[in-house]
Design brief:
Strand content of chain A: 25-35%
Largest interface: A-B, 59 and 54 residues
Radius of gyration of chain B: 18 Å
Helix content of chain A: 25-40%
Helix content of chain B: 25-40%
Oligomer: heterodimer
Number of strands of chain A: 14
CATH class of the largest domain in chain A: Alpha Beta
Shape of chain B: elongated
Structural class of chain A: alpha/beta
CATH architecture of the largest domain in chain A: 3-Layer(aba) Sandwich
Order of helices and strands of chain B: EHHEEHEHHE
CATH superfamily of the largest domain in chain A: Vaccinia Virus protein VP39
Radius of gyration of chain A: 25 Å
Number of domains of chain A: 2
Largest sheet of chain B: 3 strands, antiparallel
Shape of chain A: elongated
Number of helices of chain B: 5
Number of strands of chain B: 5
Strand order of the largest sheet of chain B: 1-2-3
Structural class of chain B: alpha+beta
Distance between the termini of chain A: 81 Å
Amino acid sequence: MTSARKGFKKRVDIVVEKGAEELFPEVLYKALSPGGIWIEEKGNDAVIKCYPDNVDAFLHILQTSKMETKDTLVVDEPEQDYAEMTKKYFRPIQVEGITILAPWNKTKRKGIRILIEPGMAFGTGRHESTRIMVKLMGGMDMKDKSILDIGCGSAILSLYATVLGAQKVVAVDNDEDTVLSAHKNIDLNNVSNIALTCSDLQQVRGAYDIVLANIDIRTFKATSAHVMTLVKESGYLVVSGILGRDRKELLSLFNSFSLIRMEQKNAWRGFVLQKKNA
Amino acid sequence: MAKKVVALVKLQLQAGQATPSPPVGPALGQHGVNIMEFCKAFNERTKSQEGTIIPALITIFSDRTFNFITKTPPATFLIKKAAKLAKGAHAPKKEVAGSIAKSSIKEIAQLKMVDLNAKDLEGAIRIIEGSVRSMGLEVVEG
C-alpha cells in the first residue's frame, strides 16, 4: 500500500507544533536517506516533510519515538530530476543584445556573451535593475575608462564594462559569499582587468571616470556623500535598484550632479548622473 | 543590489552531506534556484560539524539568487552530546537512558537562546529540560 507509484516518491508530512522540529529525533533522521528534513511553517504549526526510503518502517519508528505529532500524512510527490530543473530555469537570455549564459548552456547565438554561474550573488540578468544598468551602460563611452562597480554581486556589470572596452574595473562587494561567486564568474569569462575586493563601501577610496551602483535607496541614503567623492570631475554615476516612488529622494541625494538620462522597467528606475566641475 | 525576497525555505540537514535529492531538491527546485550551488556552499560551511544536523534558513531573491544562514544544531543533538549518549531511551517513560547535569542544560539553553522562542534564559532552560525528559534522561545536580 505504501509503495510509491511509478514516477512518484512517497513523502511523509508530519504536522507538529511550531518549533517542535527542533526535537525531531535522530532515529528518524537515520531512517531518511540522505538525512534531512524540510520544514514549512503554517500559523502555529510546522509541517515536517520527510522522504524515507521505507515508509512503513519510518512510520513505525515515528510511532515508537514518542514525538508529539498533530497529524501525519503520506503524500505521492512526482519525482523530478532536480539538477535538470535548475538548468531549465537558467536558459540563455538576451539583455540589450548580449547573451547571458550559465556554464551548462549551449547557444548558437552570435555576438557578445557573458557567462554567469547563478548562485549566491545577485545579478543573473533576470532582474529589472540589472537590465536597466546594462541598457544605461550600453549608451556610454567606456573605452579606456576607469570603472568602479559598487555592490558588484555576480560581477555581471563589471564583465559588461570590460566588453565595452573599459581599461580597468574595480569591483567591490561587502558579502564574502558574493565575492567568491564573482571570482568564479570573472574566471569563467577569462577576464584579467577586473580587480575584485570584499570591502564595505565606506572603505573604498579613489576617483573613477564611471561609478556603477546597482544598490538600493537605503544604502544610498547612508552613503551618498561618500559615493560622490568616488566620481572624478565630469565623471558619471550610473545608478539602479531604485523604485519609482524613491526617484525624487534619490535625485535629491545627488542634487549636485546633473541628470543625463533616466530609464525604467516596470516599477524600477535607473539614472545616469554627471558630476559638475568644481 | 536591488534584492527582493520571494521565499524563505527552512531545512535541517546533515552537516557536510547536502545533495540535490529530496528534501533539498523539491524545497529549492520549486523556486528555481541553483540547487548544486546551495549544496556546495552548505557542505563547505558545515564541514567542520559533520555528524550533526544543521538547520539552514534559505532566502530566495527575485532574480533566483539566494543566501542562507545556518543555525545551532537542534537541541536533541546537543543533549545527546552532553549526556555522552549514542541515542535516547527506547521507552522514555519507563527506562532511564542516562543523565545530564543541570549546568549542561544551562549551557545548551544559552547556546540555543538565539533560535528558541523563549522570553528569557529560564524559559529556554524549561524547553531544554522538556526535551531531556522526553528522551528518557534524568537531570542531576552539577
